[in-house]
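Revision sheet: structure tokens.
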Amino acid sequence: MACAAAHMFVYNATLCACDPGYYLFTNSTGGGNASSASTSCVSLPRSGDGFGDWQVGSVGASRNQSFYFLTPVLSLDVVRRLTQSQAVILWVALLTLLSWLAFCAAARFAGQDPERHKKLFGARFWVSRLDCIFDNNHYANDQKVLRKRKTELGGTFSVATLILFLGLVIVLLYQAINRRNAQVHRVKPANAPDLLDFVNDLEFHITTVSSMSCAQVVAPSTIAMGTPGFMDFRVLPLSTLLTYSCQNTSEGPSITLKCNGCRIPPRDHYVSWQFVDLPRQPAAAVGFQFNLTAREHGDYKDMSFVSGTLSSDNYDDAKLKTFRGPDSNVLKIQLFPQIYNHLHGLKLLQPLVQDFTQGSILSDLSSLNASLHNPRDGVINTTLFISYLSDYIVEISNENVLGPVSILASIGGLYAFSVAFFLCLMAQCEGRIKKLRDEDTRMLKILSKQRAQRNWNKVRKFVMYTWGPSNLDPTDRSGKWPEGSVMDSIHGSFHKIRKPTRRGTSNGSKPKEPADMAVEIERVGETQQPSSSRLQYL
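Predicted:
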């Protein structure tokens, strides 16, 4: 006879069993009214592959499960990684700072000519108006009186200082909110009244990873308390302290031991059970999965737990092994009393997996085949060793680390750092580039010249529309408008409405006519350009 599945061998001439480290896994599939099942020998994944990693949790572990309904819409892991990283906030502040400096540099180099690039030159002017931090801290080695100066470089560095300062303050506030409390653990000696206050609901779920079923379990009937060989050693019925149940799962039979409203005395406890051979179902396993929880009696929100997987490769070489034989597999669990002062004195027993002692194991095919033929090896013994650490009690409380005074002091330090950093940059720039020392004066001169030019254009238009065309208009040097033009009619109607006022003079000379006055203004305009002060006055 030959076995069809991989990693199988024949024993007793008619039966098939899985190789050491493998167990028979049944995969059931159904479609409509028909269903089929396929069996194959599989092994436990290695612990380094992320399977069966140990997890230890404490208070509030069950509260976080209520947010898992958002997982199909929003990945909470991605959001948590982004919001918990201070580097994200720093990168955003750095990108904003570099973008502002790049904009100011582009506006300065591209907006040199105010006639062709009016918008860029206007942007440069408004950047200079933003100089609110360094307007009194410019280059002072020119022996001039220190005065308030608003320059383009000062405006650039003022805004850059505020961007850097706000970015650092946001990081500081995030750190203060995220780490405002520190969890402090204090250890104190325990006495009997303190230990009697710990009333918890304990659940021990231990799954034997195998192809066995609950029909092969010899259920435990007693529980041992104390140290064997000493006067405090007792053997009591299991029902006086724990309730037992077994459930078949896809990984194998799951043993559940519960203790509701349990006051465990400060002594060790031992609970043992075993699996035996049945026809065509040998007793063999490849590992143990455990999930141990503790809740305060009557409180279903907070719990302490520990979970994980124990296999043959946790404590030995990389060979695949099968648990089978009379030696017992001992799982040692410690219950540690903890008081959470910041949660109204919540008292929980923290379960911890301290040790796992392997029982009888088989690693080669010949030894496993020989064990399957030996009726004395047809058993898997498992012992749960519960140790109660009752000498000390851990008190957990949250204490404030950052106060309002320390936060304000940190904000002041960040502001001083931001100002000092950009003040040094500005001093270096103005000290090495002489052109930057008086750029505010040059900026004001350019603006004053533009303002004078606009006022001069207004005067030219006023003279042109009032007394007719003149040489002041660069578009027409002839001095006459074309006959029958619109300007001719406007000029005629204007002279019909407006009459010059005659005034007496001391020397008796006649007042000048408007036409003569226009000619004289033309002559003055051709010979002499108005000064900037006179244009400003006009």
